[in-house]
Amino acid sequence: MSDGDKNGQDNREDALVPVEVWPELERAECLARGAALKWASGVFCRPEHLERLGQYRKRESQRTASIHSRLKSVVQSYLEGVDWGLGQLRVARAELREISHDLHKANLESRKNSEDITTLETLREISFTHRQLLAAVSNLPRLYKVRSMVLETERLVESRRLLEAHAQLMELERWQDEVLLQIQGPRGSSGMGLISEDEELVLNYFSGVGCLVDALAKELWAVVGSGLSLACQNSTLFVSAVRIVEREEALDQMFLEERRSTSGQNTPMPPGRPRCWRDRFFKVMEEAVSARFRSASYLHTRGPGLASHLSALQHCIMGDLSTVRHFLEQCVPSHYHLTRAYLRFCHQFLQNHLGLVSGWELEGGEIFAVLNWVLHIYNSSEMMGEPALVAELDIEDLGPLISQEGLEQLQNKYVQKVRKSVSEWMHKALEVELTDWQRDQEPDIDHEGCYHTSLPTIITQMLEENARVALMISEALRDQTIQMGLYEMENLLSRFRDAIIEFGKEHRRDSTINSNKFYLHYLLACINNCIILKTSTESLQQQLCSFPSNRYSCISLGPLAALDRAVRKACRLVMDHLLFELQPHLQKLLSRTWLDQGEVTPNMCGVLEHHCELYSRVRQPCCQRLKEECQWLTVVEYVRTLMQKRVVCRNNDERNKLAQRMTQDAQQLRDHLQSMGIDGTIGEVNPTALILALADIINFKDPNMLILEISGFVTKYPDIR
Predict the structure, then answer these.
(1) Please, which residues bridge with residue 451 across strands?
(2) pLDDT tens digit string along 379-400?
(3) pTM
(4) Which residues 6+ apart lie within 8 Å of 29 measured at CB?
(5) 46 vs 41, 43, 50, 52, 325, CA distance in Å?
(6) Degrees (nearest 5) of the Cα angle 395, 399, 403?
């Protein structure tokens, strides 16, 4: 059959076989046709565009040929890659067949050698047992000497020959470690942390070594704990202890390094390792510091002995620090920094101890002692502020001895205790003051000639002393103490004013001849006391205002207002007493005797002179104020008595006589007051002019003008109504 017939037959067979058409292909063909139609409709939209149809056909033919060539190139490359991949798969299949064949042969060989391996394992166990027996035979001389060496080492420890004892102990431990290593062999310890029977037997045989370690450690720490006392006598023991500690530390490091270098071989640590005796050394030193300082006047810490206890602590700490710096520091390696460590131990002990002390129910003096010691003495050059100690360690890095919150609580407790004491003293001082008022003698006179009692001196000295003591701690505590003192003074002045009122009531109830002859004197002394207390109060407030950083208000009106109220009340009682003594003379006004003889005004002037003489015992400005008040009181009561009494003048002569008497009284009062140093003019008003104006009205001649004259009088003196 020719090729043409074969091709024809193939074509017929292809025509008979249904061709599967891909949906994506049909869709792509439709999209291509649509795009071509759209492009053709756009290009050949006019008849004249058909002239370029040949050009477009040639260009598209070239583009189609180019695309076909690229497709053929891509398909060819893909087919070549597939062919290379199939070749690699064939090679891999051949290699896998070879490997499988070799593994099968190795499996057969291993089955043949299994019996030989069992025989070798038996030989290995026999060899290991032989090595153990050989080690036991070689160690028999040492094992026989263990008991005697343990006894010898015990004797050395008891006699405190520490270096020799430690050398013997190291030898025993070395024997023990070698025996254990030979028993364990290269496989390490049997099991996961379990001890075999052989290892347990060895450890029991060397059990005396562990007891020796404990005994040596006990003696060692006893020597370290008493290092301060040994340093001044014989430091050999302390040096030996330090050398032993360093030896043990070196052994610990050696075993740890060996274990790290053979971490994959499960190498066990010797029994009791690591011992960490260097850390224990510092722990024992810290415990020794705590025990030593607790014994410093500890039995007398509570109560008044707290200040002595703190002083004893100071001397004990500084003495020990001197010993550490000059003696113990030379007995230890430089990297110990023993002075720095000792400073840290002291600071930690004091933090705990003062925290305990702060929780006690302390009195004011005890709280002051604690605050002063913590804030000033501890950091001063007499203690931790010494330059040599500052170079070793900055104490501020260790934190405060008492926290800021704890200090504030202590300061608040101090202020409360002082407040209670101040309140009690003020109460006692007021009781003494009330007792002084009942004395049958005039008050004391100071260097300025003014009356006074002991009350202001006691109060002033107490408040100023408390402020001075508080300032020794801090300005903030001084401010709190001053504020507290001013508050208590305000309470005292309130009670003081009540006492003055009650003093006046008692005097009015008992106004007979047996009444207190010095009633007025003590009222004037009370006024002077208030003036002195005002000066003290202003001085304390000035101390508050002198520091702008304080948190209190510079102006506290409470005590000053209370002082002003007390002074006003005392002055009012003084004027009441003056009125009481003037009243008998005022009752004689408008009497026939008064009109004819005029003895009332001289008597009144005598009373005024006596009072003004006593007023001179009062400090300024109250002295001037009392004199002015007595002038006004005399004139007002004179006029009030005239206005309240009814008198009938039957003719001009009687009115003229009455007016003349009133004019003479006014002139006498003015002259007498001026002779006592009282200016007749207060502001722009002359009190005695009121009497003269009233006399002019009484002596007025024209009745028709009387209403106008009275109207002018009322306008000038509106309160005359």
Answers:
(1) 445
(2) 888 888 888 787 777 777 788 8
(3) 0.67
(4) none
(5) 9, 8, 8, 11, 116
(6) 135
